[in-house]
């Protein structure tokens, strides 16, 4: 079974986009992984408008 992991940083719109992507992945047969290293697909969804979301990723 194909597994995915989605990390979301940023605003509420990012969270909604990640939820939409997750719904579509499940529609086509993907399952959520328990951890990123178990996934065949890792998505990192960040905000391109605000730099603070990017800063949180890198510490």
Write the layout of secondary structure elements.
Blueprint: E1 3-8, H1 12-27, E2 31-32, E3 41-45, H2 51-58
Parallel strand pairs: 1-2, 1-3
Brief sketch in words of this structure:
This protein has 59 residues and is an alpha/beta fold. Helices cover 41% and strands 22% of the residues. A three-stranded parallel β-sheet has the order 2-1-3, covered by helices on one side.
Strand content: 15-25%
- Main β-sheet, spatial strand arrangement: 2-1-3
Q: What general outline do the C-alpha atoms trace?
A: flat
Counted up, domains total 1
Helix percentage range: 40-55%
Mean pLDDT: 90
SSE ordering: EHEEH
The number of distinct β-strands equals 3
Rg value: 12 Å
Enumerate the spans where pLDDT stays under 50 for 5 or more consecutive residues.
none
Secondary-structure-based class equals alpha/beta
Largest sheet: 3 strands, parallel
CA distance, first residue to last residue: 33 Å
Q: Give me the number of helical elements.
A: 2
Descriptive overview:
- It is built from two helices and three strands, in the order E-H-E-E-H.
- By secondary structure, the chain is an alpha/beta fold.
- It has one domain.
- Strand 1, helix 1 and strand 2 form a beta-alpha-beta unit.
Which descriptors would you attach to this protein?
3-stranded parallel beta sheet; 59 residues; alpha/beta
